[in-house]
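re: that complex we talked abt at group meeting.

here r the seqs, copy pasted straight from the sheet so there may be weird spacing, ignore it
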Amino acid sequence: MLTIGTLAKKTGTKVQTIRYYEQIGLLPEPGRSAGGQRRYSNSELDRLSFVRHARQLGFSLDAIRELLDLSDHPDKSCADADAIARRQLKQVEQRMARLEALRTELQRMVRECSGGDTADCRVLEVLRDHSECLTDHEEIGA
Amino acid sequence: MLTIGTLAKKTGTKVQTIRYYEQIGLLPEPGRSAGGQRRYSNSELDRLSFVRHARQLGFSLDAIRELLDLSDHPDKSCADADAIARRQLKQVEQRMARLEALRTELQRMVRECSGGDTADCRVLEVLRDHSECLTDHEEIGA
DNA sequence: TCTACATCCTCTAGCTGCTGGAGGTTCAAG
DNA sequence: CTTGAACCTCCAGCAGCTAGAGGATGTAGA
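got the structure back, here u go
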């Protein structure tokens, strides 16, 4: 039986985060000690490791919920899990493409900075005038 | 003199967002009509365009605050703006590297999925066992 | 057994960067 | 003078945690 602190250390999670996952129903309510402290077994350790690993791969908590559900039902079709992973892969690829455009633009800004004062700073100039940009970087966020 | 709605359209910003920027001090309080509605001039249009463009390039609102301040003081050194842009570039590069690792791992998961049921689903298997991973993808988030 | 002190508990609020809605007012056209 | 779009303020919520207050529990050493 593990305390929440031990579980936290073993999985590289913060204690607060574990309680948060429990609160939103991602982890089951664990047993408690006589005094009311959480006590975890190995199955909960596995489950949290799964969650953390999926988070590291960028899956949303909602996606993880689905994946956990699939994992809990070994008879369900693998195709669902596959679809979730593909969706995630697509998202990652989209983000990469966007970041690539940003990188190009930022590199150009920085490269062209001559080092005078801000009156004719290339960085600020580009920000002031969108038409200075070569690449497409319309959408904000993600 | 522009209404907030017109300003919103011209800059591709939502009305709420403009009010939000004002609230957090990123945009100055504009003049008002007799009835109390916001009225904007071209200088405010320029400022908001600047903000939006910087956001598109992924700068945080705090960074934008600094950039605006630099832009307002043409005698300050360009080096500061340059440093902010370089910082942003570095962040973008770090995120790209991370996403690259994720992409590799996700591609592998998806490629190796044989299409049976979840009992021996490759996707779930990898999530269950971190040691299956080839690449490094430690940190969570952004 | 007592005491110290780390760890645990619940609850609330905050972070970024918006976004949406309720409930009410103003403006411009017809 | 009416209509209806656009405006106003204020509050709540999204993801995914994180931090802190204020108090209870657990364990190791004296």
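couple things i noticed - Helices of chain A lie at 4-11, 15-23, 42-56, 61-72, 78-111, 122-128. Residues 3, 14, 16-17, 20, 24, 33-37, 55, 60-62 of chain A lie near DNA strand D (CB under 10 Å from a C1').
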